What does this fold into?
Amino acid sequence: MRKVEGKRMTKQMELVGSYTLPGTSMALKRMGYGAMQLAGPQVWGPPRDVDEAIAVLREAVASGVNHIDTSDYYGPHVTNQIIKRALHPYPDGLVIVTKLGARRKEDKSWVHARSRQELIDGVHDNLRNLGLDALDVVNLRVGAVMGPEEGSIEEPLTVLVELKSQGLIRHIGLSNVNRAQVAEAQKITEIVCVQNFYNVAQRSDEGLIDELAKQGIAYVPFFPLGGFTPLQSLVLDEAAASVTATPMQVALAWLLQRSPNILLIPGTSSLGHLRENLKAAELQLPADIIAKLDSVGARAAKG
It folds into this structure.
């Protein structure tokens, strides 16, 4: 049984309601937390301040966050070890989502790790460093850092299905995939979430989000401020100033208002930034601001 460590004085926030992953009892608060930035520069090695990293995780959970996104190749191993140190034994209802399909080389590059043995080893690395007997959700990472690559994903996905049948994985998701790969995956196993690059300016998944929403599948965008041109950034800055918020808060609020199946995982190693991000859950953007932000990425949308 998972229990909360000690007393928490932080007030829990509503975090814009919950979204239940399909075929599960996992009701995730729509504002989650991404652990990638808990590692050192370039997502390599330990953070500059381990104590603050631990404090960030504890405050996130104390504030109501029950969805943490991580991977054992962050660091590598660093973020999972910090999560375990900060939160284990884990509180009831906390869902930890991890990723497989990549590894880090000594030159800090990111390379694919989708062979059968690499995936098996990756599951066991995550289990060991998180201190778990089974992983709540495992996303198969398919594409490069910023987007999907073409090709079948049947072979690596079948390995995850086998690991699920062994009780080491409870549910399976996808990361950095295109629509064809989502469709292929759904013929093999149930998919509970898709994690792709999407934000105000980067809108190529517009149609996919709506398709997934109809199926009750969660969509988890990453890089909420990634890939902006200077002009697009200016529009976001002006929108933020008009509602007395930060650009990051506006970008997150826009995503929350875009579709009810969108779950957010903003990451930070700063307590101050964590608090700012969580406040985005309380920000309701007016219709005129939504329209301006919609126009920012309209040309990139492919439907």
